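Q: Convert this sequence to structure tokens.
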Amino acid sequence: MTRNQIGIAAGAVGFLFSLGVFLVALSQQNGLIAAVACLAAWLQLMIVIATAGDAMSNRQASKFRGISAVLLVAVLTLAYAVASRRA
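A:
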């Protein structure tokens, strides 16, 4: 896989994960986690769009986009875990 494909895949999986956490947080009426998940989903979508734009322009995407997509998922998971323990 190329760096563009990895960035798009990581961003897409991260977007779906963030969207799932957003929906679960809404169903549990946890507004803070829902807001964080919404922002994370927006950032993941921006990663996908930027990487897809690079792929269409035949440019190599930054390797930090894939890493940032994974880190966003990790931060969201940690925030959800902390919020779940407090409730």
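The first helix runs from residue 3 to 27.
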